Amino acid sequence: MTELLTPTLAHIVEAFHQMFPPQLAEGWDAAGLVLGRADRPVDRIGFAVDATVATAQEAAREQAGLLITHHPLLLKGASFLPATDYKGEIVHTLIEAGCGLLGAHTNVDSAPHGTNEAFMDCLGITDRQILADEKNALISGTERRVGIGRVGNLPEPLTLAQLAEKIAVFLPATAGGLRIAGHPETSVQKVALCTGAGDSLFAQARDSGADVYITADLRHHPASEAREQALLNGGKPALIDCSHYASEWLWMEETARLLSDALAQRGFAISTYVSTLNTDPWDFTVSTGYTPGSASTAG
Ligand SMILES: [Zn+2]
């Protein structure tokens, strides 16, 4: 048996982009290598949903040579990156630790093994179809269907409450948990899904005939309008609103394994870790509730 070698950063980026081609990213997105020297040997790779000061410091502690994050650090560009700016602090921390940074965003949402497919795997969803912008793409040398969001069937009908409880078990803990619009006893089997912010896909979710639409980051007006329309349509689709971060955390474990395998096939050995630091921006919630007539007059 030949001994596995240490890959360079370029070898890793090539193997990763075979699975998640940057060409699949939306036009407004920035997917690809943000920081790093192509010829530098890298034997440890970290994964995180967000590039934050904490996940950069973790990459330094872990002695990673590459941090792969789902959300792009410099999507909007920056004129200045001093370490007093949080983005500058992240860049300095990573460069000083000899750690590269790779952004893998809407190309990961779109591809097999990406954020949407990983979420569907956790629910055992079958008969999967693409929710929007369906097209063919070469993924690791094989022609595959890719696109935004997914739709498919649960193995058996559940009540909306049961489905929410099932999702709560596999998503990482966040302060906000899940918010649900719909009757808890509604029976659901056909599921539309868009991990991350999916409020631009209500029409596609409705047209797919889904019983429930799972997404994240829903704001008042789009959610309220979708709910009103659903009420005229027998309550379908119900809505489950997740933490954006939590909805996009699930793909990293399998990808770490697949990337290790792909590099091993090329004769390279790496180790990986998946960050469990919570990068959801909210720390705690308080339920509000002035109930008319409940105010105590005592004292
Ligand atoms: Zn996202």
Model description:
The chain is of the alpha/beta class. It folds into two domains: 123 residues, NIF3 (NGG1p interacting factor 3)-like (Udp-n-acetylmuramoylalanyl-d-glutamate--2,6- Diaminopimelate Ligase, Chain: A, domain 1, 3-Layer(aba) Sandwich); 132 residues, NIF3 (NGG1p interacting factor 3)-like (Udp-n-acetylmuramoylalanyl-d-glutamate--2,6- Diaminopimelate Ligase, Chain: A, domain 1), CATH 3.40.1390.30. Helix content is 31%, strand content 26%. It has ten helices and eleven strands. Helix 2 packs parallel to helix 3. The model has no long low-confidence stretch (mean pLDDT 95).
Summarize the structure.
This protein has 299 residues and is α/β, with parallel strands linked by helices. It has 10 helices and 11 strands. The chain starts with 8 loop residues before the first helix and ends in a 25-residue tail after the last strand.
